[in-house]
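Protocol step 4 of 6: structure prediction from sequence.
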Amino acid sequence: MTDYAKLDAWIDAHFDEEVKYLQQLVQVPTDTPPGNNAPHAERTAELLKEFGFEAEKHAVPEQEVKDYGLESITNLIVRRKYGPGRTIALNAHGDVVPPGEGWTHDPYGGEIKDGALYGRAAAVSKSDFASFTFALRALEAVAQPSKGTVELHFTYDEEFGGLLGPGWLLQKQLTKPDLMIAAGFSYEVVTAHNGCLQMEVTVHGKMAHAAIPTSGIDALQGATKILTALYAQNTLYQQVTSKVEGITHPYVNVGRIEGGTNTNVVPGKVVLKVDRRMIPEENPVEVEASIRKVITDAAAELPGITVDIKRLLLANSMQPSPGNKPLVDAIQKHGEAIFGEPLKAVGTPLYTDVRLYGEAGIPGVIYGAGPRTVLESHAKRSDERVVLEDLRRATKVIARTLADLLA
């Protein structure tokens, strides 16, 4: 057998163990919010120790986490140094949105049915805690590298933007890899992604009794003007197209609306949560200035309506980079060998933590154990799942890729 075949065989022989590891990770909730994620890091570190991997625990200071709107974050780094050479980091995030409604499987059960493992974060991205860990185990057991270093970065702040996850590790100079791979999907290697601007828009009017509405100023009417203006932008955005395959055009979404006190009261305040996705070609400063103007101009159409606009998140896009070519070449080569079909190098409309590595001068790509699409994985929806055969094959691709990069 070739070395690649031996890597594959090791993964096959230990696959039941890999699946059990993933089940144990899914069974510890990491709903964000509220974002009490340190317990999951502790459990992950315990499991890693059983494999002979010592995880460094980097706890973000409590006040810093609370000021950020979360409860606890402990990021993990596993460093495996084999000799001189480049350092390759593998990053997956453990935090995830709450389950929501509509599940037919326990979101924390890790139940297996019809060849898929169900649970919140089963696909995004606890599956890549498993694929990355077992690819590294296979590498050491079979290839026994004598050059370079591999680091596992298991972090807990992707849902809120990554600044207290990879951003914090990089800012504190706790790591500086030469190349990195982040959790993704098995059927493509992602080389670029959208940026994201999130804002909280508070619309102020004047509360009044519904029997005498003219004594108040209806904040909801003001919010309606703003909503109409924002959604009209989506028609215009369709004319702004990206040159990156897999990315189409910008768009805006209003994901949450809160306001009013009762049915018989003219609402005095309405709060909108706005999400504006930016293609790689857009300038974030210009995008924010433009969307703020749309909101303030719409509010000005109703006398007495005022708005406060607060930026919640500004995540830059991930730009295509020639520096990630070694990663792309290796993943495409082994992906085609394992999956029996070519792996495309594309962009994605998501935003991820990879941009933070890119901003630190570290070339990276997105590749991991999910299915063909986010939609297929049910990520952020009920009955999230990962197909176990995708997990197995992605683990083999990562192990082979590491063997090539450290050769």
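Step 5 (inspection) to follow. The chain is about 35% helix and 25% strand.
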